[in-house]
């Protein structure tokens, strides 16, 4: 994918610049690069899908915009991992984990080693965040389009930061949040930068009308929310082989998901609550919680919400303002979201 | 100062946008704003000094550029405090401190409350970092100038991040770094974004020649390094009433300063080392360390380095490429740096 080449050359340039400050700084860039490869390049795909379906031909410009959103994604997950005190992602050490592990190997005690890991990750996330807007500076386009793209990126960061804050705050609040609060948080934290902004950016770069860009924002929002609810469902009912992560994690950390918010309003909550956030939850206890989440209707409610939001997304695609070529490209996006679930 | 009005309107707009995500997000912006006011507005002053001395007349554009560097400063200190696990700055709670304290008041136990504080500060720093480039988008100037300004900002972040990483790494390394390593770290961490980039940005906005912009980079570097060494001296030999911070702090945390790096190469180091990084260092022990730092020549070496770098800075101002008006404005900057010391 062309985006990979753009990112490779971005990191090569950064490592060249970093040599002026010595090998330690080059190492940080190497670790950051390792944490930005191997993803599904989901956000660049959204940019490319909108851009090409709308007749865009400048593949390099499009790849730069896609790479910017990929770097934003890297920045957000690197900082999210700091906030969640996670030292690995998809089974391999993340930035914090790499820096913690080399410190441990060098004989530095655990709290100091972990703190070194989190410090390096904080700095690396700042660099990825800055790198995202830097990439947009290299896009060959009019001044107006570039300003529009930079504002979209800014909006995406603004929303993600707000969603991340709500995530932190909802987890600490004594009451379980409402389903709507969880949906608002998830939309802000992930849907905006993963779906809405990349689709809008691709369309903007292709010179689309504001009305179409607005429609893509709405489509992105609905798909993005559906995607997040599916993610919540998979976190409890998914199969570990398909998702690559344990289905005990969300329950053990007491994550405020749509499922939990829905269950908290039912009479079965008293039988579920003691296990939510139980750090040593056993597989048997998890089975009990899963059964209760079905019985109380929380699972059904979440699945109904997935259907509602995907239907709304499809309805946006049926509007006259959406060209047929774009419709054809975006319908499979909705399917992809659904297929993760069923 | 016009910069204050620009920042006030930036934060007002951000708070308006944040209401869409509810009062919690507005609170974060309020706390962030509180952490960005009350500073000396040092970086904006550098921008304005260069811009006006070179005949720039668009005060609003200049204030926007100044405000961008002030926000960058806010972002860097907010993240630096996370890395240093500091919960206050200048005696009042910083972002981490405010969020920790309200959590503690709400009955949340200490580790969770501290973690909430650091999470909020990480997010707030990301927002300030992004805000800096957003402000540059509103500057009324040519496309070339704006790209140049955005690249300067990017360079400043690149350098500061590298300096911050080196600071973390030098503190953890078993050996005391060399004086040159400390100077390189301090230049990258602070001098670039505090002196070099703001001066260059002001000149760039005023349409200065590349040769003059290069000279300002060199001037900024020399003044900035002198400033940092003075800071190291004040951290140990300053008076608490003048600096507003304890002169035990640097010694207690074992900060890798020019003084310490210089002392480590002398025969007196064996009598100093046991007290460096001693968390419960007493005032008497600190007096002993101060006396040793004088005897071994470390203080004299640091003061000599201040003189050398200020002389080099003044020599840059004497070059033909620097207009007389600018020379007149920048000489007092050098004096200000020195006056902190003597």
UniProtKB/TrEMBL annotation, chains A, B:
PROSITE patterns recorded: POLYPRENYL_SYNTHASE_1, POLYPRENYL_SYNTHASE_2
Domain of life where this protein originates: Bacteria
Keyword Nucleus: no
Alphabetical list of CDD domains matching this protein: Trans_IPPS_HT
UniProt entry keywords in alphabetical sequence: Magnesium, Metal-binding, Transferase
A Pfam family of this chain: polyprenyl_synt
Cofactor(s) the record lists: Mg(2+)
Family: Belongs to the FPP/GGPP synthase family.
Full protein name: Polyprenyl synthetase family protein
Species of the source: Frondihabitans peucedani
